[in-house]
Specification:
alpha/beta, Rossmann fold, 6-stranded mixed beta sheet, 16 helices, about 35% helix, elongated, disordered N terminus, binds adenosine-5'-diphosphate
């Protein structure tokens, strides 16, 4: 049985496994990669992300020596790829390509054994194919016809073929794009296990949440340039995602993990500011919709750790926040009224009103009396246990059926700077 998956080039010396130095490359004179530099060390587990056409596949082909840089150089184990004979480079670097087409009707065993082409022929190869398939949990496929396999099975067989090179560096070009979610997770779990065995992995993928959860480093390409390279959570910040992909991104923490969600980027200029008075989750969806629609949004007074306060934090909103489970105090009340005075619109959701937050309704009435436009969801009247909402209408607050109706009213007025 082969001892490890790691090839001979990795363990020796202190050179990085891959060193990409000031690499430039273009097709037909059109630049695709520009001055890209980074190192990948032995045992690194690197995800490569970036929009379509940003140069990810080209970069992988340069590392595999299929392409040669037009500027700079790519070193594998300290030696430029152009100095390797193809067969020698294949002992250092293996590639799982984006698609693998087969013109002949071969068995899985034959497909996998083809991967050993770069190694000295010996009786060992047969045993290796069995061992490698078993390592990937698909030993039972060995006598099947490759063309009869499912997409998920084929992908694992192609991975087994690449592993047969016994190279220390494995490159994968979007191996998960055609797989369902369960096969995706199985594949990335396997890659993580192989990496734990000592294999250095560089893998292109599109799913940023999988990238965040699996890889130890992420490399972000944007328009042929290296936009970021480092630990996933430092690299995939909402700012970077917005700059690179042109979408708004939000970070959420759930059960100890970080997740990204997205919405389309703002169109046109920023509109005015809407101050939302909410709580208990009555404002989270509204605030996000308003942000997506291009409004600046503030909120308050909210208790720390309230659902709406957490949503506001993820959205990066300016908020007036009171201590958890504490009634609105003088300081936060004053600050809240000040934020309302300078808002273009104040929205009161159908938040349950109790003694703890009755001052928010008082603040809304004050703002309305001073001439600020205030909309309230009708449901707040029924959810009032403190008798605070009686003054809303007489203060000049406009009642709307619910927050969906308010959003519809705002959309109908879209294009104007003010909701008047
Ligand atoms: P990604 O993998 O990030 O989608 P690619 O490296 O495949 O990006 O492509 C980068 C750019 O180079 C794209 O504009 C693509 O159309 C172009 N390109 C890729 N391969 C070729 C090729 N063989 N000939 C000409 N242009 C190419």
């Amino acid at each position: 049985m082969p001892a490890v998956v790691v090839g001979p080039g990795v363990a020796s010396g202190a050179s990085p496994v891959v060193s990409v130095r000031q690499v430039g490359f273009g097709y037909d004179g059109r630049p695709v990669l520009k001055r890209v530099s980074f190192d990948v060390g032995a045992g690194d587990f690197v995800g490569v992300v970036g929009p379509n056409g940003s140069g990810k596949s080209t970069l992988i082909d340069l590392i595999d020596g299929i392409l040669q840089p037009q500027q700079g150089e790519v070193l594998i184990a300290g030696r430029a790829t152009r100095e390797y004979r193809r067969r020698d480079l294949a002992r250092e670097v293996a590639l799982v390509p984006q698609s693998f087409a087969l013109d002949f009707d071969l068995s899985v065993r034959e497909v996998v054994e083809m991967g050993a082409y770069c190694r000295a022929r010996s009786g060992e190869v047969r045993g290796d194919a069995e061992w490698t398939l078993a390592r990937l949990g698909i030993a039972e496929l060995i006598e099947r016809r490759f063309t009869e396999l499912s997409g998920g099975e084929r992908q694992l067989v192609v991975l087994a073929q690449a592993l047969m090179q016994r190279a220390g560096l494995l490159l994968l070009d979007e191996p998960a794009s055609a797989l369902d979610v369960s096969h995706q997770l199985r594949l990335f779990d396997l890659l993580r296990d192989l990496n734990a065995d000592g294999l250095t992995v560089i893998c292109i993928l599109h799913d940023l949440n999988l990238a965040l959860h699996y890889f130890s480093k992420l490399l972000v390409l944007s328009d042929g340039e290296l936009a970021a390279f480092g630990p996933p959570e430092e690299v995939l910040t909402p700012e970077t995602v917005e700059a690179v992909y042109g979408v708004r991104a939000y970070m959420h923490r759930h059960a100890g993990r970080t997740y990204l969600t997205y919405s389309p980027r703002l169109r046109g200029e920023r509109k005015g500011r809407i101050h939302v008075v909410c709580g208990g989750g009555t404002g989270a969806g509204l605030m996000r919709e308003l942000v997506d629609a291009g409004w600046e949004v503030s909120a308050g007074v909210l208790n720390a750790l309230d659902t709406d306060e957490e949503a506001g934090r993820e959205l990066g909103l300016r908020m007036v926040v009171e201590a958890p489970f504490s009634p609105v105090g003088d300081e936060t009340h004053t600050e809240n009224v000040a934020l309302m005075r300078t808002a273009d619109l104040v929205i009161l959701t159908d938040v349950p009103v109790s003694l703890g937050n009755a001052r928010n309704v008082e603040a809304v009435c004050t703002a309305a009396r001073e001439g600020v436009r205030v909309w309230a969801a009708e449901g707040v009247l029924a959810a009032d246990l403190a008798g605070a909402t009686g003054a809303l209408v007489e203060s000049g607050v406009e009642l709307h059926a619910d927050t969906a109706a308010m959003l519809a009213a705002l959309t109908a007025r879209d294009g104007s700077q003010r909701p008047a």
